[in-house]
Amino acid sequence: MKKADIEAFFQRLSDANPAPETELAFINPFTLLVAVVLSAQATDVSVNKATAELFRLADTPEKMLALGEETVRYHIRTIGLFNTKAKNVIALSRLLIERHGGVVPQDRASLEALPGVGRKTANVVLNVAFGHPTIAVDTHIFRVGNRTGLAPGKTPLDVELGLERVVPKRWRLHAHHWLILHGRYICKARAPECPRCPVRDLCAYKAKTTTGEAGRVGIA
Predict the structure, then answer these.
(1) Can you tell me the mean pLDDT for 83-103?
(2) Which of 138, 178, 173 is nearest to 20 (CA)?
(3) Whole-model pTM?
(4) Of 2, 3, 59, 138, which one is the catalytic site residue?
(5) Of these four, 5, 43, 72, 206, which has the most CB atoms within 10 Å of its CB?
(6) Which domains does the chain have, with CATH numbers?
(7) Rounded to whole angstroms, what are the CA distances from 108 to 50, 159, 176?
């Protein structure tokens, strides 16, 4: 995608949604970290339902550790992989207390050293909680990066590094949210809604849908 097209791409996404935000419910950096860990292979909606009561009871590492793994597991039992996730939530809470005084660190290496936290999770926390211009590549952003031609890549890291190279600095802080929301609600995997896409003319995707086609198109 040409430089001018990339600028126009993000200008249009910004015009449509000037202040995009995560759809995960959280109270502070700690609850955001837990929510993102829980969101692996789960929807934001399902995570928000599970954490509403959990975060009312425990919004700090100390309170979460005091709840114990069994109680955490009970509250998140409707989320996939809840047994492993409960163990990780308790373990990361303990390490936050032992290594960081109960405060969520603001650097990627320290975040990735916590149980259940990978590069994508660390990028989300750095971006949403601390305002770092990081780009967390999930399945939606991976699809959008490849399908549109914005940042093609064979792996999520390829797409992330590609986006870091091409996204203009003034758009980088919110790029993650614009792209994930675009992939979630418009540039869908099996039924992309090309007719209402604000960047349709800039997109390299050849099999664009037209009115009435979206429900019949299957594309990765």
Answers:
(1) 97
(2) 178
(3) 0.88
(4) 138
(5) 72
(6) 3-19+135-216 (1.10.1670.10), 29-130 (1.10.340.30)
(7) 27, 18, 16
Taking Cα atoms as reference points, which of 35, 36, 29, 97 lies closest to residue 63? 97
Residue at token pair 């660190």? 105
Residue (of 125, 109, 219) closest to 176 by Cα position = 125
Reply yes or no on whether 138 is catalytic. yes
Q: How far is the C-alpha of 82 from the C-alpha of 93, rounded, in Å? A: 16
How far apart, in whole angstroms, are the C-alpha atoms of residue 69 and residue 7? 47
DSSP 171: G
Asked if 217 contacts 183 with a C-beta cutoff of 8 angstroms, the reply is no
Q: Which of 55, 65, 57, 56 is nearest to 35 (CA)?
A: 55
Please give the distance of CA 176 from its chain centroid, rounded to a whole number. Answer: 7
Chain length of the chain: 220
Catalytic-role residue among 120, 154, 201, 206: 120
Active-site residue, 120 included: yes
pLDDT beyond 90 at 154: yes
